[in-house]
Amino acid sequence: MVATIVKQIKDDLELHRLVPPVNVEVFARSLGVTRIKRSSIKASGMLIAGKSGYSMLLNEEHSWKRQRFSCAHEIGHLLLKKLGLANPGVSEARFQSPSSARKIEETICDQIAAEILLPELHFTKDAEGSNWSLESIDQLVRKYQASAESVAIRLVKLMPNASILGVWRPTSIRKMRMKLEKVISNTARYKLPNHVNPATFWFLRRALLGEGLEHGSSAVIDLYPHPALKEIPAEAIGLYPPSFRRVMALYFPEPKDPL
Description:
Elements lengths: L1 H12 L10 H7 L2 E7 L5 E6 L2 E7 L4 H19 L7 E3 L7 H18 L2 H10 L7 H8 L3 H11 L5 E9 L4 E9 L4 E2 L6 H12 L4 E9 L5 E12 L6 E6 L8
Parallel strand pairs: 1-3
Antiparallel strand pairs: 2-3, 2-4, 5-6, 5-10, 7-8, 8-9, 9-10
Helix pairs in contact: 1-4, 3-4
């Protein structure tokens, strides 16, 4: 259902043809948003229906890149309303524990936001130029004015070959432990283990402390024909500023097509 709704909206509005960097506020106004205001709110963004159109509130305490994503996310809610698929009134992009229906709507709006900020036509061409590598992530971040994590997730979603993105946070240097905080995958055959072995730990730690892309190998779980660990190529890069203390790793269970 999620994919069907997102595809319908993407096709109807030809979101894949948007040219980066997309001016999300101008786009929002073209769809009927009459007022966009930054304010101290608990949510990331809010869409409020009024007599003469919609007002949008963005969290003034968030970074400008996150505000761009929140604006695009709220555009998603607006488009769902126009299709009669969302509740009227106020829509809040909260990071809490909503109902199952609410989770589905938030997932749809996150995907619509990605379609707006990282339009498929241009993004695929740019990603192919770097052979779908995190090596070009800084360039893509600047061009699309999106966060590194959003760009990496989009890489995985659009990559033609099987790939997995893992976001790790070190919890104990002495005990060589890292916590897996997020997994994005375009394959059902492979999954990431919840814990890292010593070799993978040092590979991820080098990326966390370094200033560029780190190449290496890492273990994934191959579920076919029965679950087994498999060493595969991977690349990793630290998320900055260093205070984030997180590292993104992109895993390639299958060989990428050559440039």
